[in-house]
């Protein structure tokens, strides 16, 4: 029995027996979820609704709780709510606009959650009705476009972008999201560009704008003409392209900074002290703990820009002084729970100190350097699926760069020298390189360093064959440019040659295990042909004649590996089996390498015997090489400086489809209720005129 209280001479029931109190907006939602028109008894219903603070959780939950049949019964009210939301977007009072935007988010997500198994057309019908869909969606997109382009509230722009991201990512596979047809017809491309070209808008909304653009570009990109692809490919406005590059550079810089912080924290910890005591036997295990989630969304944006827009290539080399000079925006930043980096924009305080100086002398950085540093981190560990995808995408981006004539021009430019401090995987047999000893070199040297680093550090049981193939292709494309333009690059080519020979050695040592999963002869042929490229054309692009001599020295010094490779491919090419043809290609490719070994080895042995030397020094071997070039006969091999250009649609469609699905899920997951928090918005619009 409920107790009673005596107060002011009156008896009343205590709060224990009260019905749970419902806020007015919830009662109004309940009216919408009946079969009656809620404005029938209250003509001002819709007007009042958009003055109420939205309860996103309740509205979305209510939609999800209904089954398909119940939802169809209230379809007219859902259509009416959707249409009134669109009308409210044109209101003068910003609070109505805010509430309409948030209600649209809840409606779109709630109806999609309920109708996961049904077709996109059913969802359009449920939200807006077939008969009114075209006009309503046109009005919606025009309103969002106006809000994004207006000089008004930054918070409203932020909500518009959140709504658009919500709209794009409600389905895992964005190409099955038929609502996006209306986003294609009623383009917001120019609004996105305007955000990227304005320093203030870019700082506030650049990240969301770039991710939104990357996703829209991937809508049915292989099945129909996507206007966002067409428009992105012809953008030539410098401010816009630089703005996009800056947003991408800042996001990648934040990742690099977070990784560096974790690495320093890790090294200064107890485990570091322990490893110092007992040696570096545990260093690989220790390093596995350093993990920062990768950012595939921003990497996809970089890829689309590089792949689709030739003008964007110039942005890669643009220095970014803005990175260190940016001020914190005056509007408050919502406090949200810590989320993975791949899903949320970098916070402004991070951006303001984003790119750390590469050296104590403080030099400017650029997008390409930041990207190379990012790549050197994510490519260290390819066992994790996200990092594997990130590593693959990094190599695809580098492939596009390596094929571009203009990109190659600045990569090889002797007047553009940088210190690029790439991250190197801790390994027991090598010391950590001192950052300050890095020389200033053309940027192509950092690309080659990254490729060499990958080759050396991923010879393991779970062999990433696809990544190795891409890696060798990048090196080959860079060499083709150097040969064509006669660029004599001062690079430590011996490191590359040594890495390639060790790779061949690894393939032979693990022949049985690897052949069960991979055609290792494709990779072996590519490696051998890189050596053939150096042998045939090295005199046109190696920096000095002595570099060419050193190439021969390395081949002779490591001749056992080439002899073993020849024995292996000869054995398999003479047997009638599945590897007969690919193995015989390697046999033919080895002809000049074998000619060099067979020509010089007897000469070296003879020199040693005549001079009574048991072990020849490098200089003595080089002397023999230089004096016996004249009698060496090599075969001219065709097509060494030719390559098949990168094609996304024919070879990479499945990879990008899966990648975009993963990004869509990630973005949707992090458009949580708290990121649409109303408290800050209401402070901004605290008065209603």
Which descriptors would you attach to this protein?
two-stranded antiparallel sheet; mainly alpha; single chain; 3 domains; disordered N terminus; 689 residues
What's the SSE blueprint?
Elements: E1 4-7, E2 10-13, H1 24-32, H2 45-49, H3 56-65, H4 68-73, H5 75-88, H6 94-114, H7 120-127, H8 130-149, H9 154-169, H10 180-185, H11 189-197, H12 199-217, H13 227-234, H14 238-267, H15 270-278, H16 283-287, H17 296-308, H18 313-316, H19 322-325, H20 348-351, H21 367-378, H22 385-403, H23 405-411, E3 417-418, E4 441-442, H24 443-457, H25 465-485, H26 493-509, H27 511-515, H28 520-541, H29 545-557, H30 559-574, H31 580-589, H32 591-610, H33 618-627, H34 648-651, H35 653-669, H36 679-684
Antiparallel strand pairs: 1-2, 3-4
Helix pairs in contact: 3-6, 5-6, 6-9, 8-9, 8-11, 9-12, 9-35, 11-12, 11-14, 12-14, 12-17, 14-17, 14-21, 17-22, 21-24, 22-25, 24-25, 24-26, 25-28, 26-28, 26-29, 26-30, 28-29, 28-31, 29-33, 30-31
Subcellular location: Membrane
GO cellular component, one term: cytosol
Main location: membrane
Strand content: under 5%
Helix content: 55-70%
Radius of gyration: 31 Å
Number of helices: 36
- Shape descriptor: elongated
Q: Strand order, biggest sheet?
A: 1-2
Write down how many β-strands occur, each being a DSSP E stretch of 2 or more residues: 4
Query: Whole-number average pLDDT?
Result: 84
Explain how this protein is built.
The chain is mainly alpha-helical and 689 residues long. It has three domains: 24-186 and 658-688; 244-265 and 293-321 and 363-426 and 437-486; 492-648, no CATH class. The protein is 63% helix and 2% strand. It is built from 36 helices and four strands. It has helices spanning 24-32, 45-49, 56-65, 68-73, 75-88, 94-114, 120-127, 130-149, 154-169, 180-185, 189-197, 199-217, 227-234, 238-267, 270-278, 283-287, 296-308, 313-316, 322-325, 348-351, 367-378, 385-403, 405-411, 443-457, 465-485, 493-509, 511-515, 520-541, 545-557, 559-574, 580-589, 591-610, 618-627, 648-651, 653-669, 679-684; strands spanning 4-7, 10-13, 417-418, 441-442. Strands 1-2 form a two-stranded antiparallel sheet. A hairpin with a 2-residue loop joins strand 1 (4-7) and strand 2 (10-13). The longest helix is centred in the middle third of the chain and has 30 residues, at 238-267. Residues 435-671 form the Armadillo-like helical domain. This is ARMD3 protein.
């Amino acid at each position: 029995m409920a107790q009673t209280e005596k107060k002011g001479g009156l008896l009343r029931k205590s709060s224990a027996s009260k019905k749970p109190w419902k806020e007015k907006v919830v009662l109004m939602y309940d009216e919408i979820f009946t079969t009656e028109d809620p404005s029938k008894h209250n003509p001002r219903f819709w007007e009042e609704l958009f003055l109420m603070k939205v309860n996103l959780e309740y509205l979305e939950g209510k939609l999800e709780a209904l089954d398909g049949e119940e939802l169809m019964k209230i379809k007219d009210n859902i259509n009416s709510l959707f249409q009134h939301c669109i009308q409210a977007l044109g209101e003068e009072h910003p609070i109505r606009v805010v509430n309409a935007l948030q209600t649209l988010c809840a409606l779109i997500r709630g109806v999609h959650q309920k109708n996961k198994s049904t077709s996109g057309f059913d969802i359009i019908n449920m939200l807006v009705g077939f008969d009114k869909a075209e006009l309503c969606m046109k009005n919606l997109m025009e309103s969002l476009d106006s809000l994004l382009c207006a000089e008004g509230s930054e918070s409203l722009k932020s909500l518009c972008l959140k709504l658009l991201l919500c709209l794009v990512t409600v389905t895992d596979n964005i190409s099955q999201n038929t609502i996006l047809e209306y986003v294609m017809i009623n383009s917001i491309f120019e609004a996105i560009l305007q955000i990227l070209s304005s320093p203030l808008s870019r700082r506030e909304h650049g990240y969301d704008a770039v991710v939104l653009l990357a996703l829209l570009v991937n809508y049915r990109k292989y099945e129909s003409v996507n206007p966002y692809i067409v428009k992105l490919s012809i953008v030539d406005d410098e401010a816009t392209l630089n703005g996009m590059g800056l947003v991408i550079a800042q996001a990648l810089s934040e990742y690099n900074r977070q990784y560096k912080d974790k690495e320093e924290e890790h090294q200064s910890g107890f485990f570091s002290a322990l490893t110092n005591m007992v040696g570096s036997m545990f260093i690989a295990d220790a390093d596995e703990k350093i993990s920062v989630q990768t950012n595939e969304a921003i990497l996809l944006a970089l890829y689309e820009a590089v792949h689709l827009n030739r003008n964007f290539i110039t942005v890669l080399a643009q220095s970014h002084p803005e990175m260190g000079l940016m001020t914190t925006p005056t509007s408050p930043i919502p406090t949200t729970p810590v989320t993975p980096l791949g899903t949320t924009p970098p916070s402004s305080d991070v951006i303001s100190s984003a790119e750390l100086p590469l050296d104590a002398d403080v030099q400017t950085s650029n997008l390409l350097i930041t990207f190379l540093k990012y790549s050197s981190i994510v490519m260290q560990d390819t066992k994790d699926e996200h990092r594997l995808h990130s590593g693959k995408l990094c190599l695809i981006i580098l492939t596009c760069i390596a094929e571009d004539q203009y990109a190659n021009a600045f990569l090889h430019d002797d007047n553009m020298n940088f210190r690029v401090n790439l991250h190197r995987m801790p390994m027991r047999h090598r010391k950590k390189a001192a950052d300050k000893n890095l020389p200033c070199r053309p940027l192509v040297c950092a690309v080659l360093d990254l490729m060499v680093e990958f080759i050396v550090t991923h010879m393991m049981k779970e062999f990433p064959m696809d990544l190795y193939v891409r890696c060798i292709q990048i090196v080959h494309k860079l060499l083709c440019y150097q040969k064509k333009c006669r660029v004599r690059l001062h690079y430590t080519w011996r490191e590359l040659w040594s890495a390639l020979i060790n790779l061949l050695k690894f393939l032979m040592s693990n022949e049985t295990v690897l052949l069960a999963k991979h055609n290792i002869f494709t990779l072996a042929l590519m490696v051998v042909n890189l050596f053939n490229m150096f042998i045939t054309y090295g005199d046109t692009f190696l920096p000095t004649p002595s570099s060419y001599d050193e190439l021969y020295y390395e081949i002779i010094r490591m001749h056992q590996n080439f002899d073993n490779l020849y024995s292996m491919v000869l054995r398999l090419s003479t047997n009638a089996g599945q590897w007969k043809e690919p193995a015989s290609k390697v046999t033919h490719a080895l002809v000049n390498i074998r000619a060099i070994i067979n020509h010089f080895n007897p000469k070296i042995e003879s020199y040693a015997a005549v001079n009574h030397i048991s072990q020849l020094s490098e200089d003595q071997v080089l002397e023999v090489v230089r004096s016996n070039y004249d009698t060496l006969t090599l075969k001219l091999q065709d097509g060494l400086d030719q390559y098949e250009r990168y094609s996304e649609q024919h070879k990479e469609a499945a990879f990008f489809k899966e990648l975009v699905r993963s990004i869509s899920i990630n973005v949707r997951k992090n458009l949580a209720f708290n990121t649409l928090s109303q408290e800050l918005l209401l402070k901004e619009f605290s008065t209603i005129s």
